[in-house]
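Attaching the record inline, Q. Sequence:
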Amino acid sequence: MGTKKPAGAKRSDGFRVTLSCRRDGLHSARPSKTFIDTEYALVRTDAKPDVEGFEERAFQHGSTRIRYLAGGSGPPIVLVHGLGGAGANWRLVAPALAARRRVIVPELPGHGGSAPIRGIAEAVLAVAEAEGAVPAPWVGHSLGGVVALRAAALRPDAVTGVVLAAAAGISSAGRAGRVTVTLIGVARPGKILGRRRRQVARSRAGRTLAFGWWGVADPAGLDPEMAEAFLAGPMRHSDTLTAGKALVVSDPREELHDVTCPVLCLWGANDNWVPLSDGIEYARRLRAPLRTIADCGHLLIGERPDAVVRAIDEFL
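Structure, as predicted:
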């Protein structure tokens, strides 16, 4: 795979600055098309890749570093993980899509290698624009679905379609959702399991403990390496609570009338975390098709990646 060699001065921290431009309305409700206030950098590492065949890159959004993965060639597509997740969550989906597309996998602010920042959708839009992945369809899992919807509402020119993969935002806006997200953000149970992620992921009992009921329909059948990838992200998170609070204080239904692109609602039939009824409501409000995956829980992108890829390909 070829490597991008950005022009520009090399900074003392090893980043190479290649893009710096100002935009107006950084905190506006609807930024203009030329909204980037960023510096761009390509980061190469010798570490085992989070997603096979993908490069690790970083984008300076103002003073904030956003880490992301990029791979493949062809028409672009953007994959956005959920609350508490990381780029590696797409390790079984992204390579399949990269066989025919340019795939951009950002890590949300406060997650993985990305620093915290407000304006999550705006930060991901900035990454997509810097990579030339505009316009493009977006696939959002859980919180990532809310991010994709907001991006589509803010920048109809940049988002040509949205796949809501068990998208959060409806049930999570209730009191129970607010309490749950706050407790998880404060207690950070993922870090406890993450310290022993290899042992947990390679044990049927461990996978059941980590993913039973809420995450997957069949913990014993979950690929151990995929389970380990899910558990690895929380060890690097710096601030998922801010993203969680943003999720529960906003109701995406208020902006759905601004989403003009095609939408597919994709749900695990056995999702106990974001219920199928949420998918039905999204589909009704967006006049979108709803596709379900049998015997599948909330983490459908890891539990049934083949069905997810097939649904994305058929939608596009």
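Residues 1-47 have pLDDT under 50 and may be disordered. The chain has one domain: 69-316.

More tomorrow.
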